[in-house]
Amino acid sequence: MPPVSRAVPNSLSNFRQEILKSPAKLMDVATPSPATENGAFIGFRVQPGKNRQIFRKIGLRANDIILSVNGIVLDDASKGAMALGELRQASSVDLVIKRGNEELNLSHSF
């Protein structure tokens, strides 16, 4: 399935910069919790935070599971920090998410 590509408004680019300075601001957009399948960690289930506008602009919905970020498969909880570090250098973000039984690709350029 081809990725869903969206132009990222300046507000998202600015928010990205804020997150890079203070990763805790990510919690304003999404509240993650570990997601498992058959006892194995598969990613992070997300719920909208207080900044629901950006959550929706990214293309996320409540209970989506983020499986990978820019090619980093989130098969271990510690890889979340690795993915955030990779975004410091990135000009775009590519997410693979699980929504229900379907895997989707979300792609955004900064």
Structure summarized in a few sentences:
It contains three helices and seven strands; from the N terminus they run E-H-E-E-H-E-E-H-E-E. It has helices at 10-21, 52-58, 79-87, and strands at residues 4-7, 30-37, 40-48, 65-69, 72-73, 92-99, 102-109.
Helix and strand arrangement:
Blueprint: E1 4-7, H1 10-21, E2 30-37, E3 40-48, H2 52-58, E4 65-69, E5 72-73, H3 79-87, E6 92-99, E7 102-109
Parallel strand pairs: 1-7
Antiparallel strand pairs: 2-3, 3-4, 4-5, 4-6, 6-7
How many DSSP helices?
3
As residue ranges, the low-confidence spans are 1-10
Proportion of helical residues: 25-40%
Mean pLDDT comes to: 84
Radius of gyration: 13 Å
Give the N-terminus to C-terminus distance in angstroms. 22 Å
Biggest beta sheet attributes = 7 strands, mixed
Order of helices and strands: EHEEHEEHEE
The tally of beta strands, per DSSP, is: 7
Give your account of this protein's structure.
The protein is 25% helix and 40% strand. By secondary structure, it is of the alpha+beta class. Strands 1, 2, 3, 4, 5, 6 and 7 form a 7-stranded mixed beta sheet that branches. It starts with a strand and ends with a strand. The model is unreliable at 1-10 (pLDDT under 50).
